[in-house]
Structures are given as C-alpha cells and as structure tokens.
C-alpha cells in the first residue's frame, strides 16, 4: 500500500512534524546559495540575466520579456465559452468576497480633544507571481490579482515562466485579461522575484510580492523581504482530513489525491475515528490511481507524504490537526460546524462532504493562497490588506498635551532620553 496507516495516534505526532518539515534537506543550503547568486546577478545585469536564466532553466530564448497587451485580449477571445463562463463566475465570487475585506479607517477623539487615526492606503505597485512548469494556474492569477485590484493598487504586474514555445499559457493570459492585468513578463523562478524586488531595464521595482512558487521562488522571496513586502513563504501544499464513520471512502480518497497531484512534496493526511474508513481509504486511493493521468507524480506524493491515522476520538484528531496547523482542513464528519469551532489553527476549513477543497481552490470566494508548513499557527490567507499599509495620524491640541505631558516627561526621563523630555517641557511653557 502506498498510503501508510498508523493505528497508534501517539506515533503520529513525530511523523506530522517530519511532514511539516519536508522541505528541509541537506541540499537546502546549496539551494540558498544558488538563489543568492541569482539575485546578485539580476541586480548587476538586469534583463540580460533574466534572459540567460530563462534560457538555462526554462529551455527557451526570450527576446521580448513583456507579453504584448493585445495578446491578452486575443487569449480571451480564443477561450472556449464554457471556460470563459467558469472564469467569470470565479472572478465574480472572489471579487464579492474580497470586497468585504476592505479595512475601515479608524478615528478616535480623545478625552482632551486630541484626534487619533489610522488610515489605510494601497501600495503603489504590486508584483504577482504565477507558477508554471508542471501545470498552468489561471486560478492563481485571479486569487492574486483580484485582492490587489480591490485594494486599489494602480500598477499590478505579473511574472510567470514561459512554456517551451516561449509563450504564456492561453488560459493564464485570459484570466489576467479578466482580472485587469496588462503588464505581464515571461520570466519565472528566483530571477523573477529578484527583478520585482530590485527592478531591471524592463521591469520596475514593486512594493509587495505575492504568489506561490517552488523552493527557489520561496527562498528568493525570503531573501528580498525587507526590500519589498511579501505575502508569505509558501511551501508544498497539504490537506488534512478529519473523518468519522459518516464519511465516504471514495470522496475521502479523491480529496487526498486532489492534493497529492500538485507536487511530489504535497502532503495528504487522514485522521479518522473509523477503523473501516482507515482500511478502505488506502485501497480506494490505489484504485483511483490506476488510470490517473498524473500517476507517477501523485503516487510519489502519496507514498512519501501520505498518512492515515486511526484516532481514539474526534477530540484527539482535532488536537493532532492543531499541532500540524494544516493549510487545508476538511471536516467530513456528522457535525462539521461544531468541530470547526474547536479547531484553532488551519489556513482554510472545508465543512462537510459537499465542500471539496477544489471549491476553495477555484471559486468559493476566500483566497486559495494559504499558509503552509505549520505557519497557519500565526498567519492567514492572502487578503486585500496584503496590498495595503496603514498610517497612524496623531493630533494633540494644547489641552491634550498639558493633560498628558507630565506623564510623557516621566516616561522619557525613565529611559534617559533628555531631548524627548525637553520637547514636551518646552511646549508646556508656551503661553496660550
């Protein structure tokens, strides 16, 4: 059996830790060195480095890095009507959900007439990374572009690796057209992140970079953080399913495979209280893999990072899930809402048998760019706020400073900051 079964939940905790840390390897330092060298070369050589790396890593020579804006309109026109309608539905639902995320400016009037405000503004320019390689991801275009659009970002630039023909996938371009992006560059990998962070002759520097990618992209985002903002450090995708005896093994197996087919490092985990389900799901996974079009990749994921744990109770399953803090958590149990209330740490929770994770991936509305590798303990999904920043505004009048000045002076003196204290004292001595 490809899918490992543990009948002792006490043995699951260290395995879950190993799965969470699955990108850590002896080669990680070597990858970091490669990423750092790519970033430095892009900083020195700009577009030349981008073209060289695209030929080296993607196997294609690129003359013009930018995709002509008219190619997006053409891609949309060439998109079959059913797919156009699906993209439009996704666009509408994602936009409607993210419109509700717009933060409100805050204004408080203090007791002495002072005003205290927090004001939100969009960043000027956002860089959106859309992965390529094994597959094309028009859904990622929408999930990154729409929050930026809703936030009010005026300049939204997308980077994505070209195919073997040097072109960008037609549906990816169609999604970009629908989402209002017209600045797109045929470049991916760490070199694309470096270009967004530092700028080149063709690509102007951005303020924030979002979007998932491979290990090289993730480490590049980590390296440039501070120069620009980033959304998160996305690792390989993962799903954890909590299921009781009401769950259908066919649906559970399908959902595990749906995650596994992303990447050989994707993780697919089932925690169940049902011995029958624990036995049936591995068999069903094998059956559904027989004629799977991505069998080799998906099998590797299931073999290396798949796990079934037989738990003594739903409470025990919930505790194990919170330790793992999964990116995607499916609750295929009799009362999913009640169980969801007890879950403290998950990127997104999918309630009940009719809510496959695929619904969230494509068009439910909430963002599908989620924290991975345990980072759901302290972070959440990509949101409108990712593309915004807030500024504090403080306005004291004379009465407010007279009322609070002695306390400010005491605090400044306690820190040994003479001029801080003086800046208040001198104002208090001014006659009205």
UniProtKB/TrEMBL annotation:
**Which terms in the GO cellular component ontology are assigned?**
cytosol
Superkingdom as given in the UniProt entry? Bacteria
Keyword Oxidoreductase recorded:
yes
Query: SUPFAM superfamilies, alphabetically?
Result: ALDH-like (SSF53720)
> What GO biological process terms are annotated to this protein in UniProt?
L-histidine biosynthetic process
EC class:
oxidoreductase
Per the Swiss-Prot or TrEMBL record, the active site comprises 327 (proton acceptor), 328 (proton acceptor)
Annotated residues for binding of Zn(2+): 259, 262, 361, 420
Disulfide bond found in the keyword field:
no
Per UniProt, the cofactor note for this protein states: Binds 1 zinc ion per subunit.
EC number(s) per entry: 1.1.1.23
Q: Which HAMAP family match?
A: HisD
What family is this protein classified in?
Belongs to the histidinol dehydrogenase family.
Matching PANTHER family: HISTIDINE BIOSYNTHESIS TRIFUNCTIONAL PROTEIN, HISTIDINOL DEHYDROGENASE HDH
What is the protein name for this chain?
Histidinol dehydrogenase
């Amino acid at each position: 059996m490809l899918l490992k079964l543990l009948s002792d939940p006490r043995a699951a905790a260290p395995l879950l830790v190993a799965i969470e840390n699955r990108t850590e390897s002896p080669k990680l330092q070597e990858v970091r060195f490669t990423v750092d060298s790519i970033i430095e070369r892009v900083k020195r050589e700009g577009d030349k480095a981008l073209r060289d790396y695209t030929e080296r890593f993607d196997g294609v020579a690129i003359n013009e890095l930018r995709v002509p804006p008219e190619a997006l309109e053409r891609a949309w026109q060439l998109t079959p009507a059913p797919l156009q309608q699906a993209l439009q539905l996704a666009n509408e639902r994602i936009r409607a959900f993210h419109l509700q995320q717009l933060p409100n400016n805050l204004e408080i009037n203090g007791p002495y007439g002072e005003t205290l405000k927090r004001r939100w503004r969009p960043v000027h320019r956002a860089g959106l990374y859309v992965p390529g390689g094994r597959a094309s991801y028009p859904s990622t275009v929408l999930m990154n572009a729409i929050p930026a659009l809703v936030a009010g970002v005026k300049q939204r630039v997308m980077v994505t690796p070209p195919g073997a023909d040097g072109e960008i996938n037609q549906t990816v371009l169609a999604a970009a057209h629908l989402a209002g992006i017209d600045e797109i560059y045929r470049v991916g990998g760490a070199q694309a992140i470096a270009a967004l962070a530092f700028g080149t002759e063709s690509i102007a520097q951005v303020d924030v970079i979002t979007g998932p990618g491979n290990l090289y992209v993730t480490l590049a985002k980590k390296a440039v953080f501070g120069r620009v903002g980033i959304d998160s450090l996305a690792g390989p995708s993962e799903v954890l399913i909590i299921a009781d005896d009401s769950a259908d093994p066919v649906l559970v197996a399908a959902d595990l495979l749906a995650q596994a087919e992303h990447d050989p490092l994707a993780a697919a985990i089932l925690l169940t209280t049902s011995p029958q389900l624990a036995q049936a799901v591995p068999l069903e996974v094998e059956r559904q893999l027989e004629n799977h079009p991505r069998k080799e990749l998906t099998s590797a994921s299931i073999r290396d990072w798949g796990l079934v744990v037989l738990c003594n109770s739903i409470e025990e399953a919930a505790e194990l899930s919170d330790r793992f803090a999964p990116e995607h958590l499916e609750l295929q149990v009799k009362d999913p809402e009640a169980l969801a209330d007890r879950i403290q740490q998950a990127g997104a929770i999918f309630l009940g048998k009719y809510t496959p994770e695929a619904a969230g991936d494509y068009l439910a509305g909430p963002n599908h760019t989620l924290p991975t590798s345990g980072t759901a303990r302290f972070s959440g999904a990509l949101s409108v706020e990712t593309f915004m920043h807030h500024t504090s505004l403080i306005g004291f009048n004379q009465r407010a400073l007279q009322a609070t000045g002695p306390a400010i002076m005491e605090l400044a003196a306690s820190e040994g900051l003479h001029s801080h204290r003086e800046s208040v004292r001198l104002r208090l001595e001014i006659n009205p």
